[in-house]
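Bacterial transcriptional activator domain-containing protein: structure, please.
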Amino acid sequence: MLRRDYLMKMIEEMTEMLGKVFMLKQQKKKIEALWTLDELFKRQFRLSSHLLENLPAKDIVRLFQSGGEIEADKLQSLSRLLKEEGDVYESSGESDEAAKRWIKSFHLYLTAALHGADRSLWDLPAAIAELQSLLKSYRLPPDTEWLVLQWEEAEGRYDQAENALYRLLEEGHATKEEAVAFYQRLLALPRDTLAAGGLPVEEVEEGLADVQAKF
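Here you go.
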């Protein structure tokens, strides 16, 4: 209960400040908007925008580990701010700078989702879907692509999980054994479940045979 109260208080403050960032963004006050976000990073997470920019996503995740467990709800809240920072850069015409923040935010959102984050805090599935759309023309880091595969498989979108697997295979970031294990997991599921996930059992069997033949 205390943890929930703390999170809701944090989100309430963040929401208020994000409203301010939105207004500054509308007024084309990029520097003021970034300062406001940096203040939020420091106040809520004791991290600066500069540090977050330079830390790899996996190292940021380590900062949110306690007792071997990831503080998923705090992590997804940080992800929300990184997404907003990316939006500020995008509104200023700096697409590459925006994408850097969006990719990092995407990685952290996926990590939070796969570690039991409360989906209702920031509408987690919608946040992930939005970032997927924004980043569809970008090549994701292998670690992030693996998270995409895990997320899509967990959500029952097996065709999308397979797409992520093939991107990993084509770039040499997944092994034949990992691909075979993926298809074997799917073959253990009911036919109706696979069909609902966009990957009928015949296509799963075809994918498995294809992997075994090519690799």
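Notes: The mean pLDDT is 95.
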